[in-house]
Amino acid sequence: MFAVNNSKEIRTNSGIALVVDDVIANLKGHEDDFDAMVFSCGDAVPQFAQHTDEPYNQDLMAVIAAFGQKGKIMIGHCAGAMLFDVAGVINGKTVAVHPLAKPAIQKGKATDHESEVDGNIYTAQDENNIRTMMPQVLEALK
What we know:
The protein is α/β, with parallel strands linked by helices. 26% of the residues lie in helices and 23% in strands.
């Protein structure tokens, strides 16, 4: 697990303290070491919007773009598809995204479905709908 932060010590929006494996800056250039990326959104988008120019968010966009360019499996929920869109990896692909983030999808096609699988992109509207794409995710990761 990589923190989109300068520190491996993070706090969730619900106040839970976590120490993750590393920070996103140290994932750059090591995309080939992984088969897939899972972007767990939570309330990340407001934080991203407030800190767009921070180096760790720029690193996040670079890592997402690199995973997409390499055709790696990319899994996201809630507004994860929105960040995939910003990074330019869902061009023309169909995605599920939280209804509030749907208008932000510019390069892909946002649907109202619980989840969508389009090539290497696996998206769910929210955490409650991840279950609807898990069989396809597990099959792809075999």
